[in-house]
Amino acid sequence: MARSTTVHVCSACAHETPRWAGQCPGCGEWNTLVEEARSAGRRGGRGGGALGGTARGGAAVAPVRLGAVEATEVARLPTAIGELDRVLGGGIVPGSLVLIGGSPGIGKSTLTTMAVANLTGAGRRTLYVSAEESPAQIKLRAERLRGAALDIPVIAETDLGAVLATLERERPDVCVIDSVQTLHAAELTGAPGSVGQVREVAGEIMRVAKQHRIAVLLVGHVTKEGALAGPRVLEHLVDCVLQFEGERERTYRTLRALKNRFGSTNEAGVFEMRGDGLVEVLDASARFVGEATHAPGSVVLCAMEGSRPLLVEVQALVSPAQELVPPRRVVSGIDRNRLALVLAVLARHGGVATGSADVFVNVVGGVRVDEPGADLAVALAVASAARGVALRGGAATVGDGRDGGALRGRGAGMGDGRDGGAPDLFAAGEGDGADGPAPGPPLACFGELGLTGELRTVAHPERRIAEAAKFGLSTIVGPDARTLRAALRAALPGRRRQQAA
Ligand code: TYD
Ligand code: MG
Questions:
Q1: Integer distance in angstroms from the first to the last C-alpha of the chain?
Q2: Is this prediction's pTM over 0.90?
Q3: Residue pair 281/271 in contact by the 8 Å Cβ criterion
Q4: Residue 310 C-alpha to ligand 2 middle, in angstroms?
Q5: Is the distance from the beta carbon of residue 141 to the nearest atom of ligand 1 less than 6 Å?
Q6: Where in 261-418 does DSSP place strands (E)?
Q7: How far is the CA of 105 from the centre of ligand 2 (A)?
Q8: Which residues, including other chains, have CB under 8 Å from residue 283's CB and lie 6 or more apart?
Q9: Does Electron transport appear among the keywords (predicted)?
Q10: Burial 270-280 (b: 16+ CB within 10 A, else e)
């Protein structure tokens, strides 16, 4: 390898300096200098590399009209894990770089091991590079998994140079790098996992992988903030970014495509972590709503996981905050800011004020729903919890009119809702005893809340409704209700009774 030096490059203004400094001498930004390798006489155009020189002596290239480009449909390498293949867009594309991100312990090593085990069993050349675990530890995991996991060739190596040399010699079809943050480029002084290191490691691996058409599954840890470490430096470099999420203590995991050059980014797969590896969950809705309680504070959300509808139970708990302490907003499975928005709209346009209460919202089963269509479910769950009444389920209306898909079930006009936004949280007559779980299937809903209290349509209403109907949920409140107020009126049965009490 050519003699290499390192420089520190400002990620804001590209100013270069030989030594690291807290503040960029070029633009004055703080903490923007990132160490980069600069080897004399290395091939040009490496990702993030120098653009410095002018005359590079390259030969001119003749442009080709797009229509004349031969587009051969590449044969993909199916991992035989249906959910993973679907999220990838039909299997691994040869020579592609796939980044799999997720918090520690979520199952990234398990998923990648299972995928290469299947590929190994199918006769593909594979390689598992672990920079985190010893071969003995990898074997322990492999023994829990079925298939050809014990046939996977592994190396435990943290030095980037050694890994690159091994890749050049072995030239596998598919290789796992576990993880990009623990590999170490010797020519950089930065610690493994630092931005400079991560960029160098990924860039070099990509160079070798593209050269030999090696498909690489790059494992990456996410930071506390949930971003893939190395401030997005990898996301533009790789072909696919998959995010593996869920809560470690819970068994369900979702795999989402955040970026996919070879497929849709709308896809998501659901897995369950078992004693013998990850198992695909094909009947996810049944699992999640099978236990839906129909108690105050509970509602079923017709969510979309990519192109697939998914029913999940959203629960809320509203309880008086302690004095002198700011009220708490605790969420699991939804975005905190989204809850803040929903609570504000609820208070302003729905007459349910929770300003002085602790509010907890949980999506049951450790699922994450990251779509605006979840707003209404959060609003209804909170309203139901605040009032202490179960939402109106669908026992009496099973099989009821399939018209338009908005407001299923009876008496959408019950309660006039003209309370002018007066906070009636913890209204008199809250008695939970009388308001325990109501009989029959729970209420299902979906829709985005606008800031003016309107309900907005979301993608695929028919599929959401069909999924709910499949599970016997016949009372569905959707965007056709038009306003939050109307939705609350339709969903909350005991309003008038309560106000009278
Ligand atoms: P792992 O794949 O090592 O997570 P990551 O690489 O993302 O850090 O596995 C995470 C957890 O899953 C670990 O605590 C052990 C557990 N596990 C199972 O429950 N069943 C299994 O079959 C395996 C292999 C792991
Ligand atoms: Mg791991």
A1: 83
A2: no
A3: yes
A4: 28
A5: yes
A6: 268-274, 277-280, 298-305, 308-320, 329-332, 357-363
A7: 7
A8: none
A9: no
A10: bbbbeeebbee
Residue 138 alpha carbon to ligand 1 centre in Å: 11
Among 177, 179, 273, name the best residue to mutate to test ligand 1's pocket (greatest count of ligand atoms within 8 A of Cβ). Answer: 273
237 in Cβ contact with 218 (< 8 Å):
no
The vertex-62 CA angle with 60 and 66, nearest 5°, equals: 145
Instruction: Determine whether the shortest distance from the Cβ of 24 to ligand 1 is under 6 A.
Output: no
Q: What angle do CA 181, 90, 255 make, to 5 degrees?
A: 45
Distance, in Å, from the CA atom of 414 to the CA atom of 424, rounded to the nearest integer, reads 17
Tell me how far apart the alpha carbons of residues 111 and 147 are, in angstroms, rounded to a whole number.
13
Comparing CA positions, the residue from 301, 328, 295, 332 lying closest to residue 314 is: 301
Report residues near ion ligand 2: CB below 5 Å. Answer: 109
Distance, CA 288 to ligand 2 centroid (Å)? Answer: 27
Is any ligand 1 atom within 6 A of the Cβ of residue 28? no
- The reply to whether ligand 1 has any atom less than 6 angstroms from the CB of 273 is yes
Residues that constitute the known binding site for ATP: 102-109
Query: Which atom of ligand 1 lies at the shortest distance from residue 178's CA?
Result: 6
The per-residue pLDDT for range 301-331, each reduced to its tens digit, is: 999 887 788 899 999 999 998 888 899 999 9
Q: Do residues 443 and 296 make contact, with C-beta atoms less than 8 angstroms apart?
A: no
Return phi, psi of residue 6, to 5°: -125, 150
Helix residue ranges per DSSP H, 213-325: 284-289
Structure tokens at 240: 């696919």
Instruction: Give CA–CA dist 41/391, Å, rounded.
Output: 70
- How far is Cα 310 from Cα 369, in angstroms, rounded to an integer? 10
Q: Let me know: does 368 contact 447? Beta carbons within 8 Å.
A: no
Tens digit of each residue's pLDDT (9 = 90 or more) over 16-51:
888 888 898 888 888 888 888 776 544 444 444 444
Average pLDDT in the 275-280 region? 91
Q: What φ, ψ does residue 7 adopt, rounded to 5°?
A: -130, 160
